[in-house]
């Protein structure tokens, strides 16, 4: 692998061998329908793996179950076997009641006897799974999609005749539960609900889905059905408790993966520093992870290895494929044809063609975004290259799991990007390879999610007192009282009733994002090249941006957000473009405020604005050609935040030589640099990390950048010179975001933060932590209520982390819009100590 690297370079920082394992098989269960077994055998499954039978048996026997095993461990078969067996058996039973002696396949227009529902987080994944079930062609099984793409003319047929309906939470919410009367037959016979890739239901979206599943259960019960839930998940911590929280019913977990796995070698790779080039302010730069990945991918293709490279951005995937093709074409132009890019935003038929080509071996190298992480049946590759940490350990293992054929060893290369988080990981392999996978967090009791969900539930069916428990008991009662006050529901002795003829469903967004996709269209030909998320359009298709599609390069002429159109023309310039974005927060109203002698803690409404103000054109070497200003609209998010302010006296050293008021603004301006703008606004979450570990409680010395000045400072003050304040606040903000999920049961993706040494609305140094969703989701309230334990845990997490100057486990944030600069770990400990001191001294 290092054959192509110059001898003075030593990019590999660590190599780990992960042993392979042999498959453990089980007998086909006696209850399995012979037609289903025959169909699966025909598809090459000679015998099921033990975990598949274990999970399938739970489901068949009516126990709610979650199967949480590795990539390509056959989770689909684990739910297909019981569901298809039940569907086939149901149809047979009907045939025998009718007295037909010959096993005739039921007509396409027969009414179903037993039905099942399949839910996937995305339409694309649902379509993949439907294709897989349909290809089995089990007699009596009428599987069909019911999603946004289902033509109106087909919808009636699906409702009346399909016995396995493939849909997604959005359609379940808007198109099925809202009109359940039209689905009466389907619900009456509903025997099984499959929730695929359930680990992706986290944060606000997860909380919505949790309540949606409770609504589904209630509607099914109304029609006399009590379906069994079968959940499939990537490997996560505590799958049973997660699945139980998601569905509201106790689930058993199957985690003992019996699928075979080839041995894998994991190499951690740090691109070398370049001697000939420096970055901003003369800082040394490393060869980019993308360029390094292109080279590794090209080498792997030359070796004939079927390889996937995961790149974090769509643009990066295009560039990496282009780079590998360029390298290969120098060796043999024909070889260049065996490399392609893959990402969402391609048209479905393009994606299918690419998947088939990779499976058949016609393509050897594919550079992809995480679009190939989930669900797609691509496994057993010779190598996987990860350019940058994908955000969670669950994602890391899911992507790495695409490599490894039984009997053959495979290679996984993790290439660090030039950022502190990745650098930390390649030098601390245990943090990557030995930590338990994090569990997804959701909170169905969140009042902001509960209110719209309860409105939908009441509109679907009047809600009785005895059903309240399903929706959170007392919390639900409070929310219903508010809805009654707003005259949306009416309380009667028998329960709560919807007052309007209109249904609330269309108004309730369950993903916390919204808006139509932006179409990218070639102006000359009118050809649609792909789509872009509206939240990220200003970043990816601003006027002047170089937009890549399948290796072809386009330049954007016009972006019209109103009509949802970006017009481009084909052009292949020798530069790339990088947008510059500023993020700001302003206080709209302060609802709660507590003063604690120099520290105040507030809760209120804020406006978070981000704006792409220009872009840089760079040569591939990193050389900046120029900066072009842009006049694009601000993207704004009105939400809720918790914030604390600290007086200059408490932050600074004792007896400040300058007046406190002038000392703080003299620090570098961090209104832009101390922000984490890339948060929770949907569509462009480019990274993550698990929240930092909570400390052991031992007060280890914080070995931060520059010692915390112990001498010469006022009792209780942080003792920081002005230049350190921005970094200290920024580091404290990051760690607080990491720790809030402990108290607010949110996901760190659902929140964001801004820190500043002087904020114009508060007039002081301020750290904001805000909900990442319009209108807020209740997390800020929880932070406000738990301010002391939250900040104490934040401080402890930083103190107990043994790294010297800050790392992903303490003060670095993967979503920092500012590349984790400036960060002052010791300063953060000092600030938090001061804030906590004030809270405790002056608290109630
Ligand atoms: N018992 C088995 N024996 C041999 N092959 C199997 C068996 N079970 C499943 N497979 C094959 O393994 C591949 C992966 O299966 P599947 O896509 O269901 O895995 P998965 O766990 O859902 O993957 P992902 O991690 O992508 O969600 C498929 O090609 C499937 O046909």
From TrEMBL:
GO terms assigned for molecular function: 3'-5' DNA helicase activity; ATP binding; nucleic acid binding
GO biological process: interstrand cross-link repair; nucleotide-excision repair
The name this protein goes by in its record: DEAD/DEAH box helicase
Keyword rRNA-binding on entry: no
NCBIfam families: DECH_helic
Organism the protein comes from: Amycolatopsis rifamycinica
Helicase C-terminal domain boundaries: 296-448
Residue span(s) of domain Helicase ATP-binding: 56-235
One Pfam family from the record: DEAD
Keywords: ATP-binding, Helicase, Hydrolase, Nucleotide-binding
Domain of life: Bacteria
Keyword Nucleotide-binding carried by entry: yes
Region Disordered, annotated ranges: 654-717
